[in-house]
Design goal:
Blueprint: H1 3-21, E1 27-31, E2 38-40, E3 43-45, E4 50-52, E5 58-64, E6 68-75, E7 81-86, E8 94-97, E9 103-109, E10 116-122, E11 131-139, E12 143-145, E13 154-159, H2 161-164, H3 189-196, E14 200-205, H4 220-223, E15 245-249, H5 252-257, H6 264-270, H7 277-294, E16 299-304, H8 316-327, E17 332-336, H9 348-364
Parallel strand pairs: 13-14, 13-15, 15-16, 16-17
Antiparallel strand pairs: 1-11, 2-5, 3-4, 4-11, 5-10, 5-12, 6-9, 6-11, 7-8, 7-10
Helix pairs in contact: 3-9, 7-8
Length: 369
C-alpha cells in the first residue's frame, strides 16, 4: 500500500475510535498514548489502547478545568474490577466492575475546576482477562497536566496469590474466597508499602504460581520476563523499569503441591518422585539469580508468609536461607513474615500487618528512610 494512503487509513481508524467515544461536542478524548498519562506496571500498548495484564497495573491522569472524568474500557469477561482513587485519598477509593464491552465509566465528578488527580488500578488477579484502556474523557475546556511529581523510588514484587490480593476483601467473619470481587491488589502489603515510601510499584505476581510447580502449567521462572504473562513471545524489556528494591514472596504453592503426588502438575514436573530439599534450594537460588542478572544493583528481599509456610516447624524458611547462602550475594537478604494463624488468605488487616512489618524492616536496614 502506498505510504500516503496507509497514513490516511491510520488517521481514519484513530479518529473513528475517538468518534465512538466522544459523545458530545462538550467533551475531549484523551487517548491512551497521551504523554501526560502516568502508567505503572508491565503495560502493553496497541495502536488504539493500553493493555493491563498484571494485578496492580494502573494509569493516572492529572486534570484541571473539568467537572467530570470518564474512562473508556473493555475486558474479555465480566470478572475484572478496578479501583478509582481521587487526589490520593485511598480511604475513599471506589470499586467498579467492568462489563464485557467497550464502555464509558464515570470515574469522578467535581464541584470545582481545580487541579485533580485520578488513578485507575486493576485490582483483580493476573490472568488472561486483560483490561483494555482506550483513554479518558474530560470536559472540552479541561486541561491535562503533567504529573505533579515523578516518584524516584521504585519497587517490584514477585509473588503469588498473597501478593496479588486473593481474598483481601473477604469480610472479616467470612470464609476465604478466590472470587474476583474479593481480590484487591490495592490493599496488599506490596501496594501499601509502595505508597508509604512514595515509590513506583510493579506487581509481577499471579495467584497459584510457584517456583518449581504451580496449580497450572507455568511457573514463575517461565513467565517472570514476560510483558503479557499469557504470551510466551511477549517479552518484557527490563531496562524500562529498574527497581531499587525487589521483594520476592514465593514458595507457598510449592509447599503444598510437592506433597500431592496425584496432582497433575506434580506429575508433569516431578513424575512420581517428590523433589528433594536440595532440588528446591537450587530452584529458588536459580530464580533469584535470574532476577539479579536483570537488576545488577537492586536490593533483593526474599520473603515468605504470612500463611502456613511460616508456621512453626516449617522447613521452607530453611530452604530459602540455604538458597541465599549459596548465592553469596550481600544484597540478597531474607525476611519472613509472622504466621497469621487464621484460615485462608490474608485479609485487609493481615495485609496491613505485613506491610507494617516490611516497612519497618526496610527502614531498620536503612534501605530507605
Amino acid at each position: 500500500m502506498n505510504s500516503k494512503y496507509r497514513f490516511l487509513v491510520l488517521i481514519f481508524l484513530f479518529f473513528g475510535n475517538v468518534a465512538t467515544f466522544s459523545q458530545t461536542n462538550q467533551t475531549a478524548f484523551i487517548p491512551s498514548a497521551n504523554s501526560h498519562l502516568d502508567y505503572m506496571g508491565r503495560v502493553g500498548f496497541t495502536n488504539s489502547n493500553a493493555e493491563f495484564y498484571w494485578s496492580g497495573s494502573s494509569v493516572s491522569i492529572t486534570v484541571e478545568g473539568t467537572k467530570e472524568v470518564k474512562a473508556f474500557l473493555d475486558t474479555k469477561r465480566d470478572s475484572n474490577y478496578c479501583y478509582i482513587i481521587i487526589d490520593g485519598n485511598s480511604s475513599s477509593a471506589k470499586k467498579i466492575k467492568l462489563e464485557t464491552q467497550k464502555k464509558t465509566y464515570l470515574l469522578a465528578t467535581f464541584n470545582d475546576l481545580k487541579k485533580h488527580h485520578i488513578e485507575l488500578v486493576k485490582i483483580t488477579n493476573t490472568d488472561d482477562n486483560t483490561i483494555c484502556f482506550y483513554g479518558f474523557e474530560i470536559d472540552k475546556k479541561g486541561t491535562v497536566l503533567k504529573p505533579s511529581k515523578k516518584r524516584k523510588r521504585k519497587l517490584e514484587f514477585f509473588g503469588d496469590s498473597i501478593t496479588c490480593g486473593h481474598g483481601a476483601d473477604v469480610p472479616a467473619d467470612s470464609t476465604d474466597s478466590g472470587a474476583p470481587k474479593y481480590f484487591n491488589n490495592y490493599r496488599t502489603y506490596g501496594a501499601i508499602t509502595a505508597r508509604y515510601f512514595d515509590a513506583r510499584y510493579h506487581c509481577t505476581a499471579k495467584s497459584g504460581i510457584g517456583v518449581a510447580v504451580s496449580w497450572f502449567p507455568q511457573i514463575m521462572p517461565e513467565i517472570y520476563d514476560r510483558k503479557n504473562p499469557e504470551n510466551p513471545d511477549s517479552k518484557w524489556d527490563f531496562s524500562n523499569y529498574v527497581p531499587d528494591i525487589v521483594v520476592v514472596n514465593l514458595f507457598q504453592n510449592d509447599s503444598w503441591i510437592v506433597n500431592m503426588s496425584e496432582n497433575e502438575q506434580f506429575k508433569a514436573r516431578f513424575g512420581t518422585v517428590k523433589p528433594t530439599d536440595d532440588f528446591m534450594i537450587k530452584a529458588y537460588g536459580d530464580f533469584i539469580s535470574k532476577i539479579r542478572s536483570n537488576y545488577p544493583k537492586a536490593q533483593i528481599i526474599c520473603c515468605l508468609g504470612n500463611m502456613d509456610i511460616v508456621k512453626e516447624g516449617s522447613k521452607w524458611p530453611g530452604i530459602v536461607n540455604a538458597a541465599i547462602t549459596t548465592l553469596g550475594d550481600k544484597k540478597v537478604v531474607t525476611h519472613f513474615f509472622k504466621y497469621k494463624n487464621t484460615n485462608g488468605h490474608p485479609k485487609v488487616k493481615e495485609q496491613q500487618a505485613m506491610a507494617d512489618d516490611l516497612i519497618q524492616f526496610i527502614k531498620e536496614e536503612k534501605y530507605w528512610k
